[in-house]
Design goal:
Number of helices: 15
Helix content: over 70%
CATH architecture: Up-down Bundle
Number of strands: 0
Number of domains: 1
Distance between the termini: 66 Å
Structural class: mainly alpha
Order of helices and strands: HHHHHHHHHHHHHHH
Radius of gyration: 21 Å
Strand content: under 5%
Oligomer: single chain
Shape: globular
CATH class: Mainly Alpha
Length: 419
């Protein structure tokens, strides 16, 4: 009896789902992470003569875009529901610094490095910087805040800052990607700055405003419905069904995208608004737990595919210049820009170092690249763009996954001694 690729695929999905449940506990105190294991498994599976089809992000770009899109919005909802700290200018100051200073500096410096080392046109170099701009809410589970608690402000500054940054910059990176696409389109017809005004109004002011406004509206309406509705059938907090968080995610994202706003920003805003509606209620734990489980399953699938893409030769287009750019982003550019942003802020020097180091790149960058390649005529650069983004995800998974547990345990011990 012949064994089909579909049968192998079903078996891999089952094993992957089981591993997604078991691995977080097995590696909790080890210098490794769940993403590292799934990348390795995907790589090994595709090295075996299984008959599975080659993974081709060029041919299946739209499918990959939507898979990673769902993965990111699920992670954003989970991150927003987990944050205990009330939203505010001062209370969130570290996250604002990372968004307002670190992210644009990282984009500009990365673009300059790619322009110099890879010899790409300025617009393509800017696109790489923009694609790598968001730190990842998906692969950052080891450094994110934990599940919701009754106490406000009980997160340490490092975990809060990294969670808040990852939640916000997945939305705020979109205008930078749109700027790179607009610049690339303008460069094809002769350099002109005519695109700047339209980009600033449409892609920055309008779409950010729509994202925040819809996110707040949906979050407050659902928060009222979950916790305060007079009709018991609508007061879902009493029924403790976690999948409602998935409904909130897709409602917020779908409505915002229909209105041409930034859905990533809306989902995170919705999550924070629901969290603020009744901060001490145990229903937040139910919703967060459900979203975390869905996120783990989706993450496992995406990482298996990335590992398989590497095994199929996905890094073959990598040049020494693009490889050096990826290494510099993780080891030099992000740590320096993260350090600069936190000067004279709330963090201690030790916290500043840790926060700056854990600029995790991951599935958000894969989404942005897939999206950009669908919007712009970038076929001449797509192979190396896929190679460098895959390479930086691989480096980030290994580097940050190895360091997360020992570094944060050390930070926690120092914090307890200083109390």
């Amino acid at each position: 009896m012949d064994v089909s690729a579909a049968d192998i695929g079903y078996a891999c999905m089952g094993i992957g789902a089981l591993l997604a449940a078991v691995l977080p506990r097995l590696v909790a105190r080890q210098p490794m992470s769940m993403p590292m294991v799934f990348l390795a498994v995907g790589f090994l599976v595709y090295l075996l003569p299984t008959g599975l089809p080659d993974l081709d992000p060029y041919e299946h770009r739209a499918w990959l875009e939507h898979l990673t899109e769902v993965c990111v919005i699920v992670a954003l909802m989970g991150a927003g529901l987990a944050i205990n700290r009330p939203f505010g200018r001062r209370s969130w100051s570290t996250a604002w610094r990372l968004i307002g200073i670190t992210m644009p500096l990282t984009v500009v410096v990365t673009a300059l490095v790619a322009w110099g080392l890879v010899d790409w046109p300025p617009a393509v170099a800017l696109l790489l910087g923009a694609v790598l701009a968001p730190t990842d809410p998906v692969l950052a589970a080891e450094v994110r805040v934990g599940e919701p608690t009754d106490a406000e402000n009980d997160e340490d500054e490092v975990r809060f800052a990294l969670t808040g940054e990852a939640g916000l910059n997945d939305g705020f990176a979109f205008p930078l990607v749109m700027a790179a696409l607009a610049m690339f389109a303008a460069s094809r017809t002769g350099w002109s700055g005519d695109w700047v005004g339209h980009w600033l109004w449409s892609d920055v002011i309008v779409r950010v405003t729509v994202g925040v406004a819809v996110g707040l509206l949906v979050g407050r309406l659902l928060g009222w419905m979950f916790f305060r509705a007079g009709w018991e059938a609508l007061r879902l907090s009493e029924h403790r069904e976690g999948f409602v968080a998935l409904a909130a995610t897709f409602i917020s994202y779908g409505l915002t995208e229909l209105l041409h706003g930034y859905g990533f920003l809306a989902v995170f805003t919705t999550a924070c608004a629901i969290r603020a509606a009744e901060r001490a209620h145990g229903y937040h734990v139910v919703m967060h737990t459900f979203m975390e489980q869905v996120e783990r399953l989706l993450t496992a699938g995406v990482l298996l595919l990335i590992g398989g893409f590497i095994a199929c030769g996905g890094l073959s287009a990598l040049s020494w210049g693009s490889a050096a750019t990826a290494v510099l982003v993780l080891l030099v550019i992000r740590p320096l820009t993260g350090w600069v942003a936190q000067l004279r802020g709330r963090t201690t020097p030790r916290e500043r170092v840790v926060t700056s180091f854990f600029g995790i790149r991951g599935i958000g960058s894969v989404f942005y690249l897939a999206y950009a390649l669908g919007e712009g005529d970038l076929q001449a650069y797509q192979e190396e763009l896929w190679a460098v983004v895959t390479f930086i995800v691989l480096l980030s998974v290994v580097l940050h996954g190895t360091a997360a547990s020992p570094v944060l345990r050390r930070l926690d011990r120092v914090g307890r001694r200083n109390r």
